[in-house]
Design goal:
The protein folds into two domains: 181 residues, Sandwich (Immunoglobulin-like), CATH 2.60.40.680; 147 residues, Immunoglobulin-like, CATH 2.60.40. The protein is built from three helices and 21 strands. The protein has 352 residues and is mainly β.
Length: 352
């Protein structure tokens, strides 16, 4: 789809607005005329958290905080994963009870194929004897974004403004309307996805519930029997009982591995994740001591541990990575964990 030409006033405003925006970014301060609109927040709203495969839905680009006065033109880009969603149309919105007029929209780069990025340009009509004041005031939504769901079960995407500063608004007097914040949609998951619930136990940290049991882990799903093929990877945080949840996963059979910043990787093989269900995987007790985070407790870890021995936060040689029991003191409890796991490697060694 090619972008249409607009009347000279809008083209001039967009050119001037782009120059003003560039100068503002370069100087680190806004270059706005006296009497300009106050700043607003523009957000992508109404995108569902979960959608069915082969369905469709409508999201909106809206002014969610602040108001505009005499809105005349708007331009912004929207990005998404084209393997998951497909934009079929864009429809003008409504601000303060008046129509927000869509000028044109198209894929970027221009063409007929969905590229995962569109550009939207809105412009209000010129006044007529029947409509002497076509410029809306207040808040509302600029456009509707109509999507078809193209992705398979378990796939996901976020609908986003690609770069900060690319939402441009202007009033009827060619004054820029400052946009203070750009808010992307939440993640849109294609239904039929599976959920993984991981259980982890820690030594030397007391009994749960305990705040020291809350840890950030990397979670990786490998093709079953093939650790060279990573099918999904991401992060999850255990709660104070050592349980984490990852949703939106594609159903299938996987070898599942976890690792955090001081423990070796643990691997549980041949785990089947089914659509609409939660699969519980027990990873057992972590093996602490991987201070250099290379999935092998050996000489580099020994050097780091020895250097941090008998230190607490604030000491010059303090190293939080050597505090294996998370009690803010590198001492005998940590030494016991370190020696127990000496010269061990992670079960997914070489794949993190």
């Amino acid at each position: 789809m090619r972008l249409n030409h607009f009347h000279s006033k809008q083209r001039l405003w967009l050119l001037c607005g782009g120059i003003i925006l560039s100068l503002s970014l370069a100087l680190g301060s806004p270059l706005l005329p006296a009497g300009a609109n106050p700043g607003v927040e523009v957000a992508i709203i109404n995108a569902p958290a979960e959608v069915d495969a082969n369905s469709d839905f409508v999201a909106k680009v809206a002014i969610t905080q602040g108001t505009v006065t005499d809105l005349d033109v708007a331009q912004f880009d929207i990005t998404y994963d084209k393997a998951v969603l497909h934009v079929t149309s864009v429809v003008g919105g409504e601000i303060g009870g008046k129509a927000a007029q869509l000028g044109t929209w198209g894929y970027i780069p221009a063409g007929t194929e969905d590229t995962g990025r569109i550009r939207v340009i809105c412009n209000q009509p010129m006044p007529t004897p029947e409509n002497t004041d076509p410029w809306p005031d207040g808040y509302g939504y600029l456009v509707e974004l109509h999507f078809d769901v193209a992705g398979n079960a378990g796939s996901s995407t976020t609908i986003s403004f690609p770069e900060a500063g690319t939402v441009v608004l202007g009033d009827k007097n060619a004054n820029p309307i400052p946009v203070d914040e750009w808010v992307n949609s939440g993640t849109v998951y294609v239904a039929g996805s599976a959920t993984l619930e991981g259980h982890v136990t820690f030594s030397g940290r007391g009994t749960p519930p305990n705040s020291t049991w809350a840890e950030l882990f990397n979670v990786t799903l490998f093709e079953a029997g093939n650790l060279s093929n990573v099918l999904w990877t991401g992060n999850a945080i255990t709660n104070n009982t050592g349980v984490f949840t990852v949703s939106g996963l594609a159903p299938g059979m996987y070898d599942v591995s976890i690792k955090n910043w001081t423990c070796l990787s643990e691997l549980v093989t041949n785990q089947t994740l089914t659509a609409g269900n939660t699969t519980v995987v027990d990873f057992g007790t972590t093996r602490e001591g991987d201070i250099d985070n290379n999935d092998w407790i050996y000489l580099g870890d020994l050097l780091a541990f020895s250097t941090a021995w008998n230190t607490k936060p604030g000491d010059g040689l303090w190293n939080a990575d050597a505090d294996l029991d998370r009690n803010d003191w590198v001492y005998f409890g940590d030494l016991s964990l370190f020696c127990t796991n000496w010269d061990q490697k992670g079960e997914a060694y070489g794949h993190f």
